[in-house]
Amino acid sequence: MSPATPLPPIAQAASIYAIALGSNRRGLHGAPEREIAAALETLGTVLARSPTVSSAPLGPSNRRYANAVALVETQEAPATLLVRLKRIERTFGRRPGRRWGSRVLDLDIILWSGGAWSSRGLIVPHAAFRTRSFVLGPLASLIPQWRDPLTGRTIRQLAQSVDRKRPRD
Q: What is the value of pTM for the model shown?
């Protein structure tokens, strides 16, 4: 190569993300379970997906949620992936509204193979995932040995601790 020849761009290494999917409203694709199945088709390279589970809603919604987790491989940085996930949510009919209200689709970045990430509007690992059995159960079915980069605990350990019965007073 001569000095005047530009160097080819350096390929960015692919990352793996754990993406939580949730729905508790019918949308263009039908019932919440079908919304999740359709959303999985839009995520790109899905390496694995959990079974869909049903969970009680958090907050004011009365409708149960359908939840799943997918492992997605992409070269996108966390902030770039978040922008794409929000665009997918809007395409599926999600509108800004009441926190924890019913929604056609909710997509959250839970974990990233690059470890921890923090920027305006995004914290990875997801700030609340350690307390949510509807995320930890599906995650444990896919990646039980993956470690939370902040606590060092495995997903299996986190899932067991959130499911453990609390002693009565």
A: 0.86
